[in-house]
């Protein structure tokens, strides 16, 4: 039987087919993306370079000899490939389990096509079982947490974690995410919030979904 790791690897390999030759692409963060970077390095795809979303992804790109380029050096990206913690049938996501949500949202917004790679455990009818990561300015953490409580969530500080951009993360359980765009906006309007992990304003364009029976593209 295929393990979750097998499925992640299958989705990552299939996504290679969507990578155009001779373009800059964005690369997300996480264990599924790690398989994508390995597959890209082993393939004959001649991308111009990759914009990274985290120090861990940059290290993997270096390790596999893939040229990294800064977002400021490119005029948009053809494609962005990333995983998700949850993705619904409208291809809206919760992201940030790996703590890279801010850079992921920035790079996704710069990309013409967002390809989400995921195993079937991530594909859900309703977002919200996975606690929502919210990146906060450290000294506003308690203030923000009180506002998140008012929105119906139970915030919990991710202990010992600082993001690549020097902020803290609060993971919020119990939020009603049935209106993901309004919740994305409402949380981002709390002073002290840097970014939250709802990707509803910029959903994926295609989901490469790996199930035990095979990989399918969901649009
Ligand atoms: C990192 C992310 C990841 O895409 C998400 O956590 C999924 O990770 P994995 O592929 O390891 O399951 O949003 O910030």
UniProtKB/TrEMBL annotation:
<feature type="binding site">
    <location>
        <position position="122"/>
    </location>
    <ligand>
        <name>substrate</name>
    </ligand>
</feature>
<dbReference type="GO" id="GO:0004751">
    <property type="term" value="F:ribose-5-phosphate isomerase activity"/>
</dbReference>
<keyword id="KW-0413">Isomerase</keyword>
<dbReference type="GO" id="GO:0009052">
    <property type="term" value="P:pentose-phosphate shunt, non-oxidative branch"/>
</dbReference>
<feature type="active site" description="Proton acceptor">
    <location>
        <position position="104"/>
    </location>
</feature>
<protein>
    <recommendedName>
        <fullName>Ribose-5-phosphate isomerase A</fullName>
        <ecNumber>5.3.1.6</ecNumber>
    </recommendedName>
</protein>
<comment type="pathway">
    <text>Carbohydrate degradation; pentose phosphate pathway; D-ribose 5-phosphate from D-ribulose 5-phosphate (non-oxidative stage): step 1/1.</text>
</comment>
<feature type="binding site">
    <location>
        <begin position="29"/>
        <end position="32"/>
    </location>
    <ligand>
        <name>substrate</name>
    </ligand>
</feature>
<dbReference type="InterPro" id="IPR004788">
    <property type="entry name" value="Ribose5P_isomerase_type_A"/>
</dbReference>
<comment type="subunit">
    <text>Homodimer.</text>
</comment>
<dbReference type="GO" id="GO:0006014">
    <property type="term" value="P:D-ribose metabolic process"/>
</dbReference>
<comment type="similarity">
    <text>Belongs to the ribose 5-phosphate isomerase family.</text>
</comment>
<dbReference type="InterPro" id="IPR037171">
    <property type="entry name" value="NagB/RpiA_transferase-like"/>
</dbReference>
<dbReference type="InterPro" id="IPR020672">
    <property type="entry name" value="Ribose5P_isomerase_typA_subgr"/>
</dbReference>
<comment type="function">
    <text>Catalyzes the reversible conversion of ribose-5-phosphate to ribulose 5-phosphate.</text>
</comment>
<dbReference type="GO" id="GO:0005829">
    <property type="term" value="C:cytosol"/>
</dbReference>
<dbReference type="Pfam" id="PF06026">
    <property type="entry name" value="Rib_5-P_isom_A"/>
</dbReference>
<feature type="binding site">
    <location>
        <begin position="82"/>
        <end position="85"/>
    </location>
    <ligand>
        <name>substrate</name>
    </ligand>
</feature>
<feature type="binding site">
    <location>
        <begin position="95"/>
        <end position="98"/>
    </location>
    <ligand>
        <name>substrate</name>
    </ligand>
</feature>
């Amino acid at each position: 039987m295929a393990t979750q790791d097998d499925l992640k690897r299958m989705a990552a390999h299939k996504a290679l087919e969507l990578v155009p030759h001779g373009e800059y692409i964005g690369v997300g963060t996480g264990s599924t993306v790690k398989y994508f970077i390995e597959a890209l390095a082993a393939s004959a795809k001649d991308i111009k370079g990759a914009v990274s979303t985290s120090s861990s992804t940059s290290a993997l790109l270096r390790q596999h000899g893939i040229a990294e380029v800064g977002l400021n050096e490119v005029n948009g990206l053809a494609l962005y490939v990333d995983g998700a913690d949850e993705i619904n049938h409208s291809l809206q996501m919760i992201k940030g389990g790996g703590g890279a949500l801010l850079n992921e949202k920035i790079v996704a917004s710069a990309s013409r096509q967002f390809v989400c790679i995921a195993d079937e455990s991530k594909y859900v009818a309703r977002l919200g079982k996975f606690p929502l990561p919210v990146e906060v300015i450290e000294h506003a953490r308690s203030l923000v947490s009180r506002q998140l409580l008012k929105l119906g969530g139970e915030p919990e500080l991710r202990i010992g974690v600082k993001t690549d951009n020097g902020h803290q993360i609060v993971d919020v359980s119990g939020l009603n995410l049935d209106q993901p765009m309004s919740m994305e906006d409402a949380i981002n309007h709390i002073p002290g919030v840097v970014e939250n992990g709802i990707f509803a304003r910029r959903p994926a364009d295609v989901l490469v979904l790996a199930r035990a029976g095979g990989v399918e593209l969901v649009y």
